[in-house]
Amino acid sequence: MSSIFDTIHHRLNQAVEHLDIPEDIFNSLNYPEKTLAVNLIIRRDDRSFANFKAWRCQYDSSRGPTKGGIRFHRSVCMDEVMHLAFLMTIKCAVTGLPFGGAKGGVSVNVKELSEHELERLARAYIKAFASMIGPDQDIPAPDMYTGGAVLAWMADEFDRIHGKKYRAALTGKPLSMNGSQGRTEATGLGGYYVLKKMIESGLCEDKTLKIGFQGFGNVASFCARYLAEDGHHIVAVSDSSACLYNSDGLDVEDLIRFKDERKRFSDYEKDKVDILDPDDVLTADCDILAPAALADQIHGDNADQIKASVILELANTPVTEEAETILQDKGVVVIPDVLANSGGVIVSYFEWVQNRAGDYWEKEHVFERLRQKIEKATADVVNCKEEYKVESLRTAAYILALKQIAEVIMAKNVDN
Length: 416
Ligand code: NAD
Fold this sequence. Notes:
The protein is α/β, with parallel strands linked by helices and 416 residues long. The protein has 13 helices and 12 strands. The protein has a 7-stranded mixed sheet. Strands 1-2-4-3-5 form a 5-stranded mixed sheet. The protein binds nicotinamide-adenine-dinucleotide.
C-alpha cells in the first residue's frame, strides 16, 4: 500500500519534471517542516479523564504564515493531517494567498462528547499548540466538526493564554467575534465561480448543464443553488442514505429546506424523483460531477463508469491517482481540489485581512473580491496548462504553485 508521501512525491514529481527546480528544494517539499503530536487530556462531565491524540502540521512556511483548519474526527491520524497540510500549501500558492499550508486534527468522535466536554477539548487543543499559533505564524480555521462555536472557544482560549486580544490568530470565527461575512457561502460559491470561468475558457461546454453532487452539505448546497439560479439542471444529489435523481432537474431550494430539517434523502418522496443507492450519484447521467463529501470516492473500480465529462473536486482528494489516469484516458477534465474548493481559504484570508485592518466588509464586497481572486487563479491554471502543454489541470496547478514556492525558497537562500 502506498503511503501519503508516495502520493505527495508523485504529485510533486508530475509538476517538477516541467520545471528547472534544484533537486534539494524539490526534496525538501516531500516532507513537512514541522509536525507536533500530543496527547490531550480532559475531564469528562462525570469527573473521569479522557485522552485524545492530536496533531498540528505546518507543512511549508516559505510563502508566509501557515494556514489550515482543525479537524475533529474519529478517523483523523497524523498521515491525514500531514497530507491535508500539504494540500493547503499548494492551495494557498495556486490562489496567490500570502500563506503557507498547515492542518490540525484530533482523533475524536464528537458525537460522544457533551457540549462542555467539546469546549474543554477545544481549549485543550489550543493550550497544547499555542506556541505554534499566531497571526504571523500559523492561523487555524474550522474543518470537519469544528464550526463557529468551537472556533469561538479556541479564539477565546488563545486570548486568555496571551492576556490580549488577537483577532487574526484564528479565522472562521462567528460574526460576533470578528468573523467575516460570506464565509458560509465561500467554498460553494468559489466552486461555482471556478466552473463558470472554465466554461468561459472553453474547457467545459457552454450549454445548459446537467450536474450531479455527491454530498449535499454546506459546500454542495451553495454551489448547487448558484448553478440552478443560472438555469443549469441539478439532476442528481446524494447523502449517505440515498441518491436522488430527476433527469429534468431537482428542486434545489426544496432540497435545501429538506436538509435544513436534518432529514435523510432516503425519506424524500416527490413525483418524478427516483431514490437510488448513494453511490449511483457517481455514475449518474450528467455533464458535471461534483464530489462534495469524502476522499477517494472515484477510484480504480468505478472510474470507467463515470459518465460526466467534467469533475469538479469540491471535496479534498475525491479522485484517487489510479482513477485519474483512467479518467484522463477517457478525456474527462478534472478540476482539482486545490482550485475548486479554494473559496473557503480565500475568504478566511479576507477575514485575517479585515481583522488586521479593523475594517469590516459587506457581504457583496466579500463575494466580489472572492470572484476576482478565484477567477484569476482559474485563468492562471488554464494558462499554465497551455504554456507547459500538460494534460491535466492538476499538474498545471501544481506547476503554478511549485514555481512560486521554489522561487521564495531560492530567494531566501541565495548564499547558503
Ligand atoms: P458537510 O458536513 O456540510 O457535508 C457533507 C455531506 O456529505 C453531507 O451531506 C453528508 O450527508 C454527505 N455524505 C457523507 N458521507 C457520504 C456518502 N458516503 N455518500 C454521499 N454523501 C455523503 O461538509 P462540507 O463543509 O459541505 O464539506 C464537504 C467536503 O468539502 C469535505 O470533504 C470537506 O473537507 C471539503 N471542503 C470543505 C470546505 C468548507 O469550507 N466547508 C472547504 C474545502 C473543502
